[in-house]
Write a structure and sequence with these properties.
Blueprint: H1 4-10, H2 22-27, E1 33-37, E2 40-43, E3 48-51, H3 54-57, H4 66-78, H5 91-103, E4 109-115, H6 118-135, E5 143-147, H7 156-161, E6 178-181, H8 196-214, E7 219-224, H9 240-251, E8 254-258, H10 272-276, E9 282-285, E10 297-302, H11 303-310, H12 329-345, H13 347-366, E11 372-376, E12 383-390, E13 395-396, H14 399-411, E14 414-415, E15 417-419, E16 422-425, H15 433-450
Parallel strand pairs: 3-14, 5-6, 5-7, 7-8, 8-9
Antiparallel strand pairs: 1-2, 2-3, 4-10, 9-10, 11-12, 12-13, 12-16, 15-16
Length: about 450
């Protein structure tokens, strides 16, 4: 079954790939990864590259973190599964909940609701936000506001608050009562404003206007990524998220931070909220919580939300929501080991240093290659290049050009991710300075091959 030809011939014959047209998967063979070690992956043909995608934003500690693998094996030997539905629990998830409470104490988060991944965490956050208001007797608060270009997973709730048509139009009608405001995206925005601080204020004004239009008493929560990820790595001005927090507080609206990507050090801070000096009401986590070694996630809840649920005497706080694998003991064991190793290595410090080097290297590429219209990042190890056919008009390049760049860069020794006109970089947080240079050099060779 490991024969290379067999794998290539059968890849799309018996399964559909996420985020892909089935016919395209049949016509174009993907990169079939068969081994990985550290920050490098090896494909079915034996070609080794640096994985500058970090799996899918989630392999923060690399592909060979022995403490996590050992924890998974040990847990499988003693308790491979037990439910955390009412009346039962397991020792691993109890320990994990304590450690997460300690880890996120600075963010004001004291309780975890465990899930199977990022989309589940967002779905749980949206549900719990509505329930929070119902417990308090504010039954009209059911609406959600989010950012254009934002990404919040693929469940119906997450797709409804997503700000990208690619994840919405083929599945509509979606959840009613979801509204979107412009993102603080300096390269392209409806205000034609390139000053980050001024743009942040214009977007905050749009939030105020939407709240006024919809009536604050009908809005449950505002959800946002501290740094927009899949939408093209869009970091806001430092004033934006604090401004959102103040507006939400003033109108009694919960702030949900989607930190499926940014939590656990990617921004150079332990959380994206902490990076901007903001405390959320609910935080969505997943991805790096187990270093991708087990599907797992958590919606983390702040003290004031917890009090409303735990002091309820109406019966409305019964949580009629959950997943078969919520708090899975093997996932919890993996998360415990991952959290300890993440803290031991202080990966947020390395993410900040290597991220600054990567951002500077990409800016250097922009001075050489006219196809690069915008360089974004500078907040830890998450960067993007937006490619254009003309810098003056900002005309996006054809998708085929981006794919050709991806292929050439891969041949030069680095895996990158293409999303629309964007080349997205989210390498493991254990990256070295030499590996940063290798990523920049491979991209340089990829761009050179296009001319």
């Amino acid at each position: 079954m490991k024969n290379a030809n067999f794998l290539k011939e059968n890849n799309a014959s018996h399964m559909w790939h996420p985020m892909a047209h089935p016919a395209d998967s049949l016509a174009n063979a993907p990169t079939i990864v068969t081994a990985a070690q550290g920050v490098r992956i090896t494909d079915v043909d034996g070609h080794e590259t640096i994985d500058a995608v970090g799996g899918l934003w989630n392999v923060n500690l690399g592909f060979s973190c022995q403490p996590i693998k050992d924890a998974i094996t040990a847990q499988l030997d003693v308790l491979p599964y037990y439910s955390t539905f009412r009346g039962t629990s397991n020792d691993a998830v109890i320990e994990l909940s304590y450690l997460l409470k300690e880890f996120f104490a600075e963010d004001g988060l004291t309780r975890a609701f465990f899930t199977s991944g990022g989309s589940d965490s967002v779905e749980s956050a949206l549900r719990l936000a509505r329930q929070y208001h119902k417990i308090r007797g504010e039954h009209s608060r059911s609406k959600f506001i989010s950012l254009q270009k934002g990404y919040h997973g693929t469940h119906f709730g997450g797709a409804s608050v997503n700000g990208n048509a690619n994840f919405r139009t083929q599945y509509e009608p979606l959840l009613a009562g979801c509204f979107h405001i412009p993102a603080p995206y300096t390269y392209r925005n409806p205000f034609n404003e390139s000053d980050p601080e001024k743009l942040a204020q214009l977007c905050l004004n749009a939030l105020e206007n939407t709240i006024a239009m919809e009536d604050a008493s009908t809005i449950a929560a505002f959800i946002m990524e501290p740094v927009l990820g899949a939408g093209g790595v869009i970091p806001p001005h430092k004033s934006f998220m604090p401004g959102v927090r103040e507006i939400c507080d003033r109108h009694g609206i919960l702030l949900i931070a989607d930190e499926v990507i940014t939590a656990f050090g990617r921004t150079g801070s332990w959380s994206g909220c902490r990076h901007w000096g903001v405390k959320p009401d609910i935080m969505c986590t997943a991805k790096a919580i187990t270093n991708a070694y087990f599907p797992f996630g958590a919606a983390m809840l702040a003290g004031q939300v917890v009090e409303v649920f735990e002091n309820d005497s109406t019966g409305r706080a019964f949580i009629g929501h959950g997943y078969t694998y919520s708090g899975h003991p093997v996932g919890a064991a993996a998360a415990i080991a991952c959290l300890k190793e993440t803290q031991r290595l202080q990966v947020h410090t390395n993410a900040g240093a290597r991220g600054a080097e990567l951002f500077a290297g990409l800016q250097g590429l922009a001075s050489k290659h006219e196809i690069i219209g915008d360089v974004r990042g500078g907040e830890g190890l998450m960067c993007a290049l937006e490619l254009v056919s003309d810098r003056g008009s900002k005309t996006p390049i054809d998708k085929s050009v981006a794919l050709a760049l991806q292929k050439a860069t891969y041949e030069a020794g680095v895996m990158v991710r293409v999303s629309g006109p964007n080349v997205i970089l989210s390498p493991p947080l254990i990256l070295t300075a030499d590996e940063v240079s290798a990523i920049v050099n491979a991209l340089d060779a990829g761009f050179a091959s296009l001319s």
